[in-house]
Structures are given as C-alpha cells and as structure tokens.
Amino acid sequence: MPDSSAQRAADSTAVRTPQATAEHLIGGSIGTRVGLGRPSPRVLIWPRWFDNPYLPSLVDAFREEGLDVRTPFILSSGSARLRAGDWLHGHWTTEAHRDRRLWLYKTRAGMFRRQIQELKQRGVRIAWTAHNLVPHDDPYPELGRRARQELLDLCDHVFIHFPGARAILAEEFGYDGPTTVVHHPHYIDSHPIPPTQSGARAELRLPTDGFVALSFGLIRPYKGLADIIAGFQRMARENDRLILAGHPEGDVAAELAAARRDPRIIVQAKHIPTAQVPTYFAAADAAVIAHRTFFTSGSALLALSMGCPVVGPAVNHLADLAGGQRLYPVELCPDGLAAGMAEARAKAATVDRDSLRYWAAEYGSWADAARRSAAVFRSN
Predict the structure, then answer these.
(1) Share of the chain above pLDDT 90, in %
(2) Is residue 128 part of a domain?
(3) Residue 37: inside a domain, yes or no?
(4) Is 240 inside any structural domain?
(5) Does residue 24 lie within any of the structural domains?
(6) Which of 199, 162, 141 is nearest to 1 (CA)?
C-alpha cells in the first residue's frame, strides 16, 4: 500500500454516519442487517492511520456492509467495550510502536502484547491484515520480528492480499491458521480521473517526447532510491526524466543530493496533494518500485489505478499483479532496473492506460474486501 507516516488523533469511538444515527434513534443496531436475525460483532480497527486512503476507504466499506466498526486512536480505551465474539482487526500494529529509543520501543511492544493477551482472555477474536511481513526501516528488526511472531501466535485469522502469502507466513513465522485472500482494492475512486499524458507533462513542465519514470510516495531508506537513480542514469537519454515525488522520511539525504546533481532528475520532496496525484502518474511512462523488502504493494495498485505500468521485481504481491502490460519484471539492482525502464520506454506507445485502470477495478474493490472480511467476522 502507499505508506502512512503518522496517526491522527481521534475519539475512541467511531463517528456515526447519518444512517447509523437514525438506526440508533429507532432502537436498531449499527451492525444489524436485514435478514441476519442477530447483530454483527463489533470490529475495532487499529491503529488509526488515516493519512492515506486505505483505512478510511475500508472503514466506509465495512459500514456499508453493515458492520459496527470502531477506529480508536488509543487501543486500551477503544477496546474496553469489546465483548466475547467481537474482533480486533489489526493492520500496521508493530509499526505503530516502532521508535528509535529502545526503551520506548520495548515498552510499547510489551503494552501491545499484554493488551492482546487480555482481549483473548475476554473472548475477543484477533485478526490481522498482512500488509508487511516485517516493519520497514525498523531500528530494531529483531524486536519487530519478535513482535510480529507474538501477534501471529495469538491471531484467530489473517487476511492476505495474494495467495502466495500463506506459504511465506508459514515458512517465516510458522503460522498455519485460517487465512482469507482479500485482493488489495483499487484507488480509482480516491482520486480525480487522470489527465492526458500531454496535458500532464505540460503542467509539470516535462519534455513531450522523452521517457518519464516515476518513484512516488514517501521517500524512505527501504525504497531503494539509490538503485533507482543509478538504473535511470544508465539508460536515460537527454530528454528522459525521473521524478522523485513524496515527503522524505528517514536518512535519505545522500540519495536526494545525488538526484539533485542530475538535471534529468526532478525532486519533489514534499507531500503531493490528492488532486495532483493523477497528474504525476499520467505524465509517467512507468512507476518504478525497488523496495528492498515488501510484501504487499499498495504503491503498485495506486499506479495501476492511475493507468500507469510498473517496473519492479516479480515477487510477492507484484507477482500476483503481473501480466499484460501491468509489470515490467526486473532484478533488484541498477542494471536490472535500467533494463526494466528501457523496456518500458520501448513499449510506452503501446500501453492502453484505460485497460490498466479497468483491470485494477476488476482486481479488487472496497465492497468486495468488505464482503470477504465481514464473512469472517460474522462466522461462528
């Protein structure tokens, strides 16, 4: 998925929609659906990372499906009213307590572990969506891995974004419990319709006749920026461009300095407003993904949702997205990335961007994700 870098403070209970409020006033339950005969269990989603569209879109879809969803900022207070049969649905749980201060990292990890154990003792069921196998850019990777293991040891269900994730979780953590494949939904409805490529390039002041590669999203160490820059420089011609667009996070100063020394590389080291996101992807011939470690790639789904092919390794989630003109598979090294970008340049004129967007829409929707998840939450 595109990265979330911060948590926004919120009340420990979800904001009610007008429909939910009306149901409450007439004595109904937010989680009651016609024909089910009983209310749905409460589902508490944590952490509340709403800085990108993933969780807000999922929460909206859950509520449309009739689930009683809570999205607390503080887990301890938000989970106080959960009863036996309710669910805690975790997402980036280990990432939420990561910190460079070892004592604080350990304290947060220990608190989370004890909270999960207490919820299990109360009969609350635990689900986790496997966005990342282990946290990115973890200052204490052994602690992050241990925290992930402890979570999986207590999980009643794991949602995965691609079928191959089952075997990986079993091999890496010994998890052989229940799983459900829920394709990562598209982001087509989260952004405006992309403009034409010529219009986008004019707006961004890019050459009309060159190849344009895009690295989009938070600029972080694990994203392999140095390899992307080196790969681009090995294949780029005078009118070709590489755009690095996103807010910097972590120690990426050396990579950004190297990028700024090349006039063909455009550095937009800032947050890109939602309304401008389609412009960047429309201008590009390919989005380049060179993450050193990744499991699910929301970045790839965003690119395909915008009609932009991806250059990246055909492993994990990207292998599930491969086919047609969606992915130019590469080895993760400067030469491999250079070859992938060269292939994308050679085939740019043949790409049907509308078909890529259509494929993304068919691959996974928020409504489908909600239906599949709700079936698990309502089981037993």
Answers:
(1) 86
(2) yes
(3) no
(4) yes
(5) no
(6) 162
In the predicted model, is pLDDT for residue 3 greater than 50? no
Q: Where are the beta strands (DSSP E) in 130-253?
A: 157-160, 179-181, 212-216, 241-245
What's the CATH code of the domain at 314?
3.40.50.2000
Domain count along the chain: 2
- Please write the tens of the pLDDT for every residue from 258-308: 999 999 999 999 999 999 999 999 999 999 999 988 899 999 999 999 999
Tell me, yes or no, whether 138 and 284 share the same domain.
no
Q: Could you tell me which of 209, 174, 167, 204 has the C-alpha nearest to residue 283?
A: 204
Tokens of 37: 């005969």
Dihedral sign from CA coordinates of 349, 364, 279, 5: negative
- Comparing C-alpha atoms, which of 196, 232, 226 is closest to residue 214? 232
Query: What residues make up the domain containing 222?
Result: 197-362
CB atoms within 10 A of CB 324: 12
- Please report the beta strands in the chain, taking only residues with DSSP state E, as ranges in sequence order: 42-46, 68-70, 87-90, 125-129, 157-160, 179-181, 212-216, 241-245, 265-268, 286-288, 310-312, 327-329
Mean pLDDT of 343-349: 98
> Distance (Å, rounded) from C-alpha 268 to C-alpha 256?
10
Look at residue 34 and tell me whether its pLDDT is greater than 90.
no
The one-letter amino acid code at 364 reads: G
